[in-house]
Structures are given as C-alpha cells and as structure tokens.
Amino acid sequence: MLGPMWPLNIVVVGAGIFGVTAADVLARRGHRLTLLERGHVPDPRAASTDLGRIIRMDAGRDTTCASLADSCVTDWESSAAWLGEPVYHADGFLVLSRRGPTPGGFVQESIRTLERMGRAVRRLDRATLARSFPAWARADFADGYFNPRGGWVEAGAALAAWARRAVGAGVRLREESTVAGLWERGGAVRGVVLASGERLEADRVLITAGSETARLVPWTSSRLDSVGQPVFHLMPVDGTPFHSRAFPPWALDIGEAGWYGLPLNRHGVLKIAHHGAGVAMDPDDRRTVPASCVERLRSFLESHLPVLNGARIAAQRLCQTTETTDGDFLIDADPEHPGLVISTGGGGHGFKFAPQLGQIAADVIDGRPNPWRERFAWRRPAAGLGAARTPAPSAP
C-alpha cells in the first residue's frame, strides 16, 4: 500500500451493497469519498437489487461464517433506527432437506453449530411441518428445522436507504458514471478513467463492481466466476397461505444446489429462486430467463408447492452473481497493485453480511485489525470451505 495519509481521497467503483456500505463507513471515518455507479442506485441489473434477500446464520459446520452472520442479524434487527426505514423482517428461516437425518449433513451440522452458539431451533418432521407451515404439506421432505433468528430484507429498498445514509455522511455519489479502466502512475494505482475520458485521481481505489470486476481488473478473472441465477416473482391466486407466519423465508437442500424463497410482500408478490450451476452470461447480456428454467420452476411447484400451480409469474430475471473459486469473499488490497483494494465475491449471498462488509473493506484501507480480515484476505485460487456460498454436506 501507499504511505500513510489522512484523510484519504478514495474512489469506490460500484454502488451495490459492497460499495455503498464501504463508502458509508469510510466517509464516517473522515475520508473523502466518491462513489461511482454505471447506472442508478439501485441498478436493476445489479445482484444487490431484488425484491428481497434472506438473512440467515445457518451455515453447516462453518462456525466462522455462522458467527459473522450472527453479528449481522443483530445489526439487521436494529436497522430501522440507523437506516431510517423498516426494511428488515424478522420472520425466521425454514431449512428443509430431501435427505433424511444424516451425520455430517447440512441440517445436522447447522443445528450443532447453532446449539454451540446458544441459538435454539425447532426440529421438524412431516407432521409438524404440515401443521405449522401448511403450504409445505405436499413437499418431498425428510428433515429440517425452523430457526426463529433470521428473516429477510427488502434488498432494493435497503440499498437505496443505505445510499442515502452514505450521501448524508458526505459521500459524493455519481450515477451514470462508467469506469473505463484504472489510472496508474509510478507503479501504483492513482485513480480511474471514466468512459467519458474524465480522470478521477485518488489515494485509494476500491473496486466493488461485482460481475464487472474481471473487466476492470483482468488479472482477477481466474479467481472469479459470474453466472446468472434464475429468480421468479409470483402472484398467487390466494395469498393467504403465503404470509410470513405460515410461509417464512425458506431454503430446500441449502447445502447443495437448491431452491429458496420469501413470503408474500405487501404488494402480493413472493419470490422463488434457484441457486445452482447457473447460466453462463457476461455483464452486458440480457437477463432473459431460459425456458428450461421456467419449466424447472413449474416442475418444482408441482412436486413441492402445488398450491402455487396457478400463480402468475409477475417478473423473472437472471441475477448475475459473482463468486470466488473457493466461495469466500475477496476483501483485501491487491499485493501487486499498490493503491488498489478489491471487495467482491458475493455469490448471491453477500447481502446478509452487509452490516460487516463495509467495515471489513474500510479496515483493510485504514490498516485496522478486524477479526474477519484473514478469512477474506488475498489468496491463491483454491477450493475451500466458503462463507459466501454455503458448502455441500460432503465439503471438507
């Protein structure tokens, strides 16, 4: 990194949840912040923009991830006070599996981890699932539990509120500002060059650009993978069975490629999405969902949630997620490019960690200790445990 200066002039590239939270923290520490966004905030193309995101601390045997998520749930629970809007809904989290109780499986390991943390859950069998959550009475289900500590956040609304908070702290937000590349001088990154030709100088450049990261810093392409994950917004004919008390945020086979969803919102819409291998795409692709994904959704509803068979698909898109090769976030200074810091690898799971993401990136820039920095530090691309994307039960 460059020598100590105070305050720093910092340019943050990308106003998704990674960028907005970091800019907010850094501005409150007294730095001069410019936050660049190629579109508007929230950008409908961004992974951070959605009807909602699940907030959970369930992470199999990954105790570090569970501990980090636990602290973030606490922050989300008080977010109405510091964000200024009630965007978080503490409806709990329903974990379902088509596998029977299996030692070492995601359900069993999550329960063990949560119990060690003093967090009680309610174990479910077919009878209790049907009684407590009747929409799931026909599900192909063998094991699961309900965790009352968790819920969901209105992602787009939360991001917009966080951006307003950052601007209130002194962040200069520049929308419709596309970055063409980095500006380097004297062996260090000294700023960015916009597509318009304008050059913005900086003491530090923080890249939080999601799927655009590999374009801006091509040497990270071997560390990152971006794919489109299908997301559907449904409008059921009768919304009664899908309110949060009877239909809380849920995930089926979360430790593997599986389905997840959210309860009915105030507009009569619920979310169902699939997180798996995804659909190959680049940042400029249209977000059109392939017909095969729609067919897979209909098949899933038929076998697990037949009460949604008549639901109209109000909206659908491919959410372009970016994750590292080992599944963990990458939040660190680039060791070969002084002045450059990268924060990426959300993989569709970053939003729940939002209260800590900005803190970690800010501590990297300020050289402050942080208990999570080592986990997300610069490293060789390799298979690992992964906090951003929960490992399958067979993972080491």
Largest sheet: 9 strands, mixed
Classify the beta-strand content into a percent band. 25-35%
Quick check: average pLDDT? 91
Regarding quaternary structure, how should these chains be classified? single chain
Q: What is the number of beta strands?
A: 21
Based on CA atoms alone, the radius of gyration comes out at 21 Å
- Please tell me what the overall shape is: globular
Ends distance: 34 Å
Structural class: alpha+beta
The portion of residues assigned to helices is 10-25%
Which runs of at least 5 residues are low in confidence (pLDDT < 50)?
Answer: 384-396
**SS field, number of helical segments:** 9
- What order do the SSEs take from the amino end to the carboxyl end, as H and E? EHEEHHEEHEHEEHEEEEEHEEEEEHEEEH
